[in-house]
Description:
The structure holds 2 protein chains of 2 kinds. By secondary structure, chain A is mainly alpha-helical.
Amino acid sequence: MTETATTPATPVAAPAGKGIRAQVLAVWESWTGRIFALREDQFFLLLAVLIGIFSGLAVVCFRVAIEWTQLEVLGPSLSPSILRVLIAPTIGGLVVAFLVLRIFPSSQGSGVNRTKAAVYIWNGYVPFDTVIGKFITCALAIGSGQSLGPEDPSLQMGAGIASKIGRSLNLSQEKIRLIAPVGAAAGLAAAFNAPISAVLFVIEEVIGAWSGGVLGAIVLAAVSSVVTMRSFLGADSLFRVPEFRVVRAEDLLAYAVLGLIGGGAAIAFLKWLEYARPRIERLPYWTKYLQPAAAGLLIGVIGIRFPQVMGAGYSIIDQALHGQFTWKLLLVLAVLKIIATGISFLSGTPGGMFAPVLFIGAMFGGAIGTIEQHFFPGLSGSVGTFALVGMGTFFAGFLRIPITSVFMVIELSGNYTAILPVMISTMVAYFISRRFHKVPLFDMLARQDGLVLPSIEEQREQVAPVVEKAMQRDAALIFNASDSLATILSRAELKPEQPLLMQSRREWRLLDRERLKKLAEDKSRTYTAADADGKGPLPLLFPDLTLEEALQVVGDWPLLPVVNRADLSKLEGIITLADILRTFRNTPAE
Amino acid sequence: MIGEPKRNAGTSRDTRGFSREFVLVVCFFCLIALLGVTALVSRMYHKRVHSLADQWFSYGEADFKAGNTKKALIEYRNALAFSPANVMFQFHLALALAADGQLPEARAYLLPLLSESPGSGEINLALARIAAQQSHVQDAMLYYNSAIYGEWSDDPIEMRWNVRKELCEFLLSHGAASQAEPALVALDDNTPAGEVERQKATGQLLLKGQMWNRALAEFRSVLERDRNDPDALEGAGTAAFQLHNYAQAIGFLSRLPKDRSTDPGVPSMLETARQIDALDPFRPGLTMGEKVRRTAHALDIAMARAQSCTGPSGAPGAAPSPKSELSGLLATAQQSDKQWTERNMTRDPDLMNAAMALVFRIETAAAKSCGQPTGENLALWTIGQNLGSNLP
């Protein structure tokens, strides 16, 4: 940062007659001077915009690459020929396996976990070849029909770009660690065309806390990436969302049932992945060259009859949202998509799960909605409505990010009316998933990969011990400043083990017994507590503060008063360093 | 499994020692280059995609026009896959879906389009047709009316008239007479004089809506231009017949060319009109002698009808029935027959009225017990129905 201090902040006047070159140099120095005169925090925000633009451009190219590959490989029809359906994903799988194993090994694995690992393990380092590797391999895989989505790779590409820029600019270690999530938010926002959901996802799943230091940068990056993406690909949402009717109170039950079934389906999918992934990982290494091709062939076989399950499937989700499938077909597509996505993912083919999860949710939602409407024709929601809510439901159940799920549906639908059914359905699915599958997907994958990453869900649910738990109640004698020494000593003799606290206005002081006794020996005048020259004023604690916060304050004080927030003269208890440490020791690890 | 990145975590800072200015300049140029590449690639891609979308759409159009709706649907969907926001593609897909009977899906495509262009005549009409096919009368009326007052890109006057006509047809086919009446009046008022085909179509709908006067006026207007137009003659004849203007009906219907005079309904209508014209004693302009003669003839016809209808089964003392009522009327007629001579009726016209009242009661009772009358009986029955309680 020394450079920033030495760079002149004022423009250098161009000497007369030096011409355009001198003027340009002067302008340049003026601007760089201004930029580098910014504090690191302000510079970080500026950088977030740059990262957002880079990520937005990368995602535009990525999406074009996927769709172009799909056009060339699978052909321009929604119902490609059998030969193409079988050959394209198989050959694509072979090529992808070779690229991943031989040229871009860093493009394996979950982008979310890679980004979390960058934050918590690798000091913000995401190798740039990950960006290139993810771009090429995922475009090939998804474009050739593997049942995966572009969001997770986009997220990782954003993180990679951000990390590269941060390192190149020699940012502080703290900022480099934070810059990967900023890029991740930018990448995801551009891929989803949904900046709020992207910001929430990164906070909910990657960082795990509403950190003021990084929130502004994440928001700026997400917004600038979406603006960039929209200027090339248009502002249209990923799906055209049908009109959402206002539901009656009793209709919400139908959405609760959807949450129940969606949560169950999410558990089934999670359990399958949990069971199968380690077993497939244990297969001989050479099989990794064939696994994506085998997955591609299986998906091709499914695709002969149901080409809808191939690729990310946005257009199919769109059709489901508009009630263009029967409930039987919706159900079949949901089950087949689970199988196809599971196969693709387990084979190690790089790509994301977000789009397939939305697909499965939409199909389940549509199917369940149709069935419910068959039995209860009075239900006000359309099939599209249920499909929309189903997307959020399965998303919440499978990825265990309830807040992102709710806001994603609201952001995609652009309709606040959806909030009640979505909240009910997603929360039901989320709690069912939590109840029957303890470990969330990303944590499960990280543990299977041997990465010791913090579980954001566990962090979220962890209850930090608070002062109230450690403090001692009624363990001190309280005096006013005007109390006479005789009164104090008479009471103090009755409880010799208790400390003596003096309260005056809003201050608390600790009285020393020895000092009081010495003063008592002086019979020349009448002393009060105020004359005792107590230690203080003591820092005040409140019962709801965490012990961590108390630890920072306790310092060398022998004890601290815990007072009421509404009345600072009311003592709730006292706390010592020993109390804090004992409570920490006795609190079981979550 | 995820391995650690090759670079050590502890040395994540770039150590090459480039200044921030230099890195920012490089970033700036990289950004410009990436912008250029992205613009180029996205433009090429969009061009390709748009051409594919247009191609699929044109295939869809061709197949839809050829009646191959299923194939057209796939092609429209392919077109939409490449251009999902294209309003025209969505609209045509919706039309194809509606034509294929997939009405809720077609509606699902049309409603968002309508929310974007609530005044579009085309979209409202398509929605109206879907509602009509689903027999949702209120929705259909709403959309039809929106289409009538909506915006049309091509020939709005003709399109609005066509929609009015379609609305009338829909309402008439669904028996919504009360709602059809104002729609028919509006159609009639908006049918320009001189456009023969439209006038004839309007006239036909007015006939279906039993708005005889307006129908007659419409057909007359056509006949003023072409006095031998067979459609107009038949329509005008029908309207005049329904208005009990039998002489006029005969005038129109008898002018029909031979190939049209055998149209269903025309011969019987013409015959009935002629018989009414010949039998009706209350026709204006008749001499008293002719009136009396017609009354006596009508009485003979009615008594013959009553006799043939009651026949041998008219058992006396049976419970009151149409036949017993008819027998009673016949007995009354037989008793009064001697009194109702031409001479008496000429002297006392009230006798003539009483005789005709009995004729009409006999015909009505005979129609109840022996079915729809034919020939002269039908003519007398019709005269009776037309007069109702207004017997002179």
